[in-house]
Amino acid sequence: MFEEFKWLPEQASTVAPEVDMLTLFIVVVTVLITALVGVLTLAFAVAFRRKSESYIPAPSFGNVPLEIGWTLIPVLICLVMFSWGVKVYSNIVIPPADAMEIYGVGRQWMWKIQHPEGQREINALHVPIGRPVKVTLTSEDVIHCFSIPAFRVKQDVVPGRYSSLWFQPTKPGTYHLFCSEYCGTEHSRMIGKVIVMEEADYQKWLSEGAESGQALQGRKLYTKLQCVTCHTGNAEAKAPNLEGIYRKHIPISHIDGVKIKDGTKVFADDAYIRESILYPNAKVAAGWESIMPTYQGLVTEEELLQVIAYIKSLNQGQTPPRTEETPTPATIQNKSANKEAN
Amino acid sequence: MATVGLESKTFEKFPDIVGRDDDVNYLNHEHSVASWLITLDHKRIGLLYLVTITLMFLLGGALAGAIRLELLTPKGDFLAADTYNKAFTAHGIIMLFFFLIPSIPAVLGNFVLPLMIGAKDVAFPRLNLLSYYLYFAGSVIALTALLLGGVDTGWTFYTPFSSTYSNSYVVVMASGLFVVGFSSILTGLNFIITVHRMRCPGLTWFRLPLFIWAIYATSVVQLLGTPVIAVTLGLLGVERVLGVGIFDPRLGGDPILFQHLFWFYSHPAVYIMILPSLGVTSEVIATFSRKNVFGYHIIAFSSIAIAVFGFIVWAHHMFTTGMSPYAAMVFSLLTFSVAIPSGIKVFSWLATMYGGSISFDTPMIYAFGFLGLFTIGGLTGLFLSTLGTDIHLHDTYFIVAHFHYIMVGGAIMGYMAGIHFWWPKMTGRLYSEFWGKLSAGITFIGFNFTFFPQFILGYLGMPRRYYEYPDEFQVLNVFSTAGASILAIGYLMPLFYMIHSFFFGEKASSNPYGGSTLDWTNTTSPPSPHNFEKTPVVTEEPYHFHGKEAAVVSH
């Protein structure tokens, strides 16, 4: 048991040395303050020990410079820690614009990862060295937490919303991926591996056994789920054209059925697209009637990620033609209603 | 000025003498079971709490023992996964809601507060008894939940796990906490009114002993914070039982809303636990140094400041939830504001000792232990208020170590200091100083042995609430478990020598430690049923010490 023991965790990302340096600074400051308190306590205990039972020491009446000192010096120390902390935190939470994107879904008790190229894995995350990686996460059930100590990053994975974290690995190797938000019986077995590979190895790994790209899988869903019936992308469409809308500001007219002031816009990010699929009434695009049925219970979180990946890739004039052999949305809903009734 | 204490004693004090066996006191004036169970005497109610919370502490401690035994090895071999989850949940709930929150306020607050302010009882004695029975009923409901099969949500009850997914007795447990919350609210209300309305003549606000200031600040937090957790647990029950969507996103709710509501109470709750200990420490350090507390006004206001700041820092428990980075920055800065009054208190205590006449009786040894552990606990909080380091440390063993340093190292050391300090007053007996000092020493060493390795474990990345863990974490876990067995001895020893003292201990004088406040100077040990034969009149600030001989001569 002693062989594996280490005093410090692996330093395997660009932010890890920054976090460690900040930690070292706080360690030095706090150890000095602890030592000061400890030494003074012991010194006073010895120097002012009771020598005579009848001796009553003179009372003290404060010492203004001393009191200002032990108020202001800690204030300054705290401000330094706060500012330095904000700087490191910004580096931890704000991903570079060119980060490659990977998607993850947590559920009791496993991690499911999808790469844009179509590779899928469970309780493992393969990433290339030296490139910033952004992982967008959601949960199918309870709150989990995606935590990679070697990278010094951590992000809660909350059902019903997307959250993300990013890192740039600096050292090849295999590291722990923990769930660090308690999530039930096998919380402590919701452990995966992060495998940091050289770029060439990563490309090789990506090409092995992938079914098809994530966006392509999303395209299949787009026709299977009959999105294409209304979002046709042409003039007779009953719903807005989705081509090129990803990460654009879109005018909306209603929120939860309530008319809002003209010109209000919403940012069409992953979260908005997900919300519009599950709760079509939540934020309705201006100029369109709210006729879309909800897809709650009809798509899994993983499928949602694929649909989003597809919409993200959808450029001008690329909406596929509707194929008649796939069922209409009403039929899908009836089926699921039957399933529940059974 | 040095002799101010000797000349200005215009209020009447008892001579420091040992009472006779046939003196009537609150312990011997009535003997029936009913005279204890339906007593309206704040001192007897304090003892009822003492017995009940001690039993809860033993139960919570046994669960801690089971947790540490399981963590001795990386594989789950002592407890099943679900049993482990239920054990740490029960440990947290019992220790926080049924031991720490009522510990100093309900035991020492009840016993000492009226004595310290020259009152015959608290403002509403019947309400006080009701508080005890609400606590008792809440405990019975919580224990029922455990006996039915327990709860596996963690003491934090995070949704939607607790509201939709857990198959354990969440609603029963939440009902127990709902009931016990009212005990806390009513005790807080009672104490606030007692301090406002029941102070004896001459006892102005700035003549109040600092323990009273601390209890007062605590009571305000109890009164304002506890209703929020009661409502939150109520909403949790509504979602779980009726399926109304509040927290579960599948029902249209928001799980993060629960965390905001939960921590809006549960962060201030930490101050319910630690503020009274800060008050006890002020009393003990002053008495055993025979010095007035340095910076009296600043210490009094820092208790109020901690109580106020405690309400505006809750979201620092949620930095990793994906909250807005700007909100995180604001809450980080606000969190640092708690460090300042805490630091001021520690330095003021050191300045109190400077130039004093320090004796090393058991309460003082415990107070030294408190000073050390509270300092480490407080300073490690800086790693968590700093955003850059909190992300890595959040939900790891670093957090576990940090809050145990505050709530076990700080709050319980303070509670033990207080129990040892006021024991002669409560029982009229002295305990063995030898065993007392030994237990304080063993507790201090065992505590550090148990929890210090967990700081390193946390930095290495070990998540909390794991019943199995990767092999490389074993060495430090073995240290921690070994320390826990030392700590257990330190906590169990007082049980034996205190019970021995209660029946066979040497009789205590009315003021064995030369205390300066009314509880020592104007009551017998143990106090008479109505505390004071004559209403005392206070004419000076607290902490004017008069020495044992001086008190006798001057009377």
Quick rundown:
The complex is a heterodimer of chains A (342) and B (555). With 342 residues, chain A is α+β, with helices and mostly antiparallel strands.
Work out the count of structural domains of chain B: 1
Biggest interface pair, counts: A-B, 92 and 103 residues
**Overall 3D geometry of chain B?**
globular
CATH superfamily of the largest domain in chain A: Cytochrome c-like domain
What strand order characterises the main sheet of chain A? 3-2-1-5-8
Count up the helices of chain B: 18
Which regions of chain B are unreliable across 5 or more consecutive residues at pLDDT < 50? 1-11, 547-555
**Strand/helix succession of chain A:** HHEEEEEEEEEEHHHEEEHEHH
Largest sheet of chain A: 5 strands, mixed
Helix content of chain B: 55-70%
Tell me the Rg of chain A in angstroms: 28 Å
Low-confidence runs of at least 5 consecutive residues of chain A:
328-342
SSE ordering of chain B: HHHHHHHHHHHHHHHHHH
Question: What is Rg of chain B?
Answer: 23 Å
CATH fold-level topology of the largest domain in chain A:
Cytochrome Bc1 Complex, Chain D, domain 2
Q: Looking at CATH, which topology of chain B would you report? A: Cytochrome C Oxidase, Chain A
The secondary-structure class of chain B comes to: mainly alpha
What attributes characterize this protein structure?
heterodimer; A: 342 residues; alpha+beta; Immunoglobulin-like; Cytochrome Bc1 Complex, Chain D, domain 2; 5-stranded mixed sheet; elongated; B: 555 residues; mainly alpha; Cytochrome C Oxidase, Chain A; 18 helices; 67% helix; disordered N terminus
Describe this structure in words.
The complex is a heterodimer of chains A (342) and B (555). With 342 residues, chain A is of the alpha+beta class. Chain A folds into three domains: 15-48 and 60-93; 100-207, Cupredoxins -  blue copper proteins (Immunoglobulin-like); 214-341, Cytochrome c-like domain (Cytochrome Bc1 Complex, Chain D, domain 2, Orthogonal Bundle). Chain A has eight helices and 14 strands. A five-stranded mixed beta sheet of chain A has the order 3-2-1-5-8, with helices on one face. Chain A has a five-stranded mixed beta sheet with strand order 4-10-9-6-7. In chain A, β6 and β7 form a beta hairpin. The longest helix of chain A has 33 residues, at 15-47. Chain A is elongated, with a radius of gyration of 28 Å. Residues 328-342 of chain A have low confidence and may be disordered. Chain B has one domain (41-554): Cytochrome C Oxidase, Chain A. Chain B has helices at 4-7, 33-37, 42-70, 81-116, 125-148, 161-165, 170-197, 210-242, 255-289, 296-309, 325-353, 362-385, 387-393, 397-427, 433-460, 474-504, 518-521, 548-554. With 555 residues, chain B is mainly alpha-helical. Chain B starts with a helix and ends with a helix. At the A-B interface, α1, α2, β7 and β9 of A face α1, α4, α6, α9 and α11 of B.
